[in-house]
Design a protein that fits this description.
Radius of gyration: 19 Å
Low-confidence stretches: none
Number of helices: 9
Helix content: over 70%
Strand content: under 5%
Shape: globular
Number of domains: 1
Order of helices and strands: HHHHHHHHH
Distance between the termini: 28 Å
Mean pLDDT: 90
């Protein structure tokens, strides 16, 4: 095991320990309820960045900081803040539609409700969020991670640089139906204070999936 592998695993264990240890667990729950946006920022910024680092590790065979790591962390955090409000919106909206008879309840099954909430969120919100995130990541890459270079990069350059075919054919058509909808069905079975955290942990798993897919794609070209 390389030093970077050990440090990454140690960081993950530290996060898990913080969540499991009773005293810190209580702090986590109370803080999430009292400061949902701040905690959304922190949770997603930390865990999604760890997922991104893992993806680089798998794809390149070694640890390396992505270009503009600081700004990537900030953007992940902002997305985490959006999750803090988007999750309750879709939860309440779908449950209201179920009560109105617009969506079947299957005997008031909590699993069915969670599935429909996950499906609605991933078909309505996720594609826009993923596309926006791809745009911000591309800006960071073309600016070489420096905000001073932002005025040198036009939206036209960004749009031309993005692999839209890969975004649609793999991220939209495969990860949404086969990963995100089932995974977030589990998410919406959890108490509200754990949902953004669950999404953050899922980003680590997705980082590995995307890295393996990229590696496989590169191998098929050789």
């Amino acid at each position: 095991m390389k030093k970077g592998d050990f440090l990454w695993l140690l960081s993950l264990l530290a996060v898990v320990a913080f969540l499991v240890f009773p005293a810190t667990h209580e702090i986590f729950v109370d803080s999430t309820k009292a400061h949902p946006y701040m905690m959304g920022f922190i949770k997603v910024a930390i865990l999604a960045t760890m997922g991104e680092l893992l993806a680089v590790r798998i794809a390149m065979g070694g640890w390396a900081k992505p270009v503009g790591t600081f700004w990537r962390v900030v953007i992940w955090g902002v997305l985490g803040m959006s999750f803090a409000v988007v999750f309750p919106i879709f939860d309440a909206g779908v449950r209201t539609a179920i009560k109105a008879g617009l969506i079947p309840s299957f005997g008031e099954s909590p699993i069915a409700a969670a599935f429909f909430i996950s499906t609605a969120m991933n078909l309505i919100f996720a594609p826009t969020m993923m596309g926006l995130h791809r745009i911000t990541d591309t800006y960071i890459e073309l600016c070489d991670g420096k905000i001073a270079n932002l005025n040198q990069v036009t939206i036209h350059k960004v749009v031309e640089h993005i692999d839209w075919k890969g975004l649609v054919s793999f991220v939209y058509m495969k990860t949404i139906p086969f990963f995100w909808i089932p995974a977030h069905t589990i998410t919406f079975l959890l108490p509200p204070e754990y949902r953004v955290l669950m999404a953050s942990f899922l980003s680590i798993a997705l980082g590995g999936i995307l890295a393996f897919a990229k590696k496989k794609g590169q191998g098929s070209k050789n």
